[in-house]
Amino acid sequence: MPQQNDLSRSLIPFEQATTLAAVIELSQSSWLIAGTIPGIERQPLKKIAPDETDLLRVLHRWRDEATRSGRTVTRIAVGFEAGRDGFWLARWLTGHGIETHVIHSSSVAVSREHKRAKTDRLDTAMLMRVFLGWLRGERGHCGVVAIPTIEEEDAKRPSRERETLVGERTRIINRIKSALARLGVRGFKPQLRKAPQLLESLRTPEDSPIPPNTLDEIRRDLTRLALLREQINAIEQARLARLEQAPQVGPNAMVQMLASIRGVGIETADMLVQEVLSRTLRDRRAVGRYAGLTGAPDESGSKRREKGLAKSGNARVRRGLIQLAWRFLLFQKDSALAQWFRSRTDGVKGARKTKMIVALARKLLIALWRMVTTGEVPHGVVVRQAV
Fold it and tell me: What's the CATH number of domain 19-147, 3.40.50.300, 3.30.420.40, 3.40.50.700, 3.40.190.10?
């Protein structure tokens, strides 16, 4: 089992006299860099064009200023918020010997004033405060995101692209059905492969053919639908080919292990492994929190209430787990988790199933995480031969 990394605080001792700390406010048109330089009282700000070479040049110039003031910089730590640019800059800076950290945007506390001032200068000052607190090893200042490799990022693309294509397929099917419903035509199934041939024989309740403009629109939508079907099939076949070539290498072994559970398919297993289970999360609480399946309590004085799910984690994992939880109840009726769910929802005073299914999804995710990390199969779960 890999060593877990607690990213809520820095584990490296912070020596302020020898550490150059810098934060970057990234945007599409410019980058604003703020620094704290040993031996230099001022805290410089530098706006540059979005160019990594210029950024490295600024950091080296600040290091030389510290050297001229009589200080030796042994550590350069750079932080910026996760956003549109992703992690490429963090990997590039790390490759050039710069310690880089990506800060989770929602973990930075902001002023709750109704009309607070917000500028890039103020944002960098606030980011510098929380980043220095994190470097000192203090908890609660901000959360740092694990920087994935380019291979780990690329491994997520097939599952995410397939989800996008499936959503587009659903939108096209609904659009075709809506166009026909306006004419009183029902029962047509655009997802069928022979749908283009069946379209020619459709008649309205007035026994008239489909109007020409509507007919042309539906034909174009059916063409898009056929293309989407081919693209989805290509992604699925490519995934199966990768699993067959290296079934026990890296995340593929986790996918095979999850797919051996009855009710868990290759698509769900691949999504869970690439999005959450292959990450080195600290403990079961971190696993549930990453998926946004933890609660959001509201407690003040004598008031005690629950505002529902925090929904601050990975929405893709959360949606897939809730769907998997309903399917798990169907295929794993004798498992301990299914019995736990029924014991709390059956009867007159049973809890609502729509609420308890979220708790089941959280328990299921933790159980699957333990299975792929320690090999512990959830109690009562039926396992089939790995696909």
Answer: 3.30.420.40
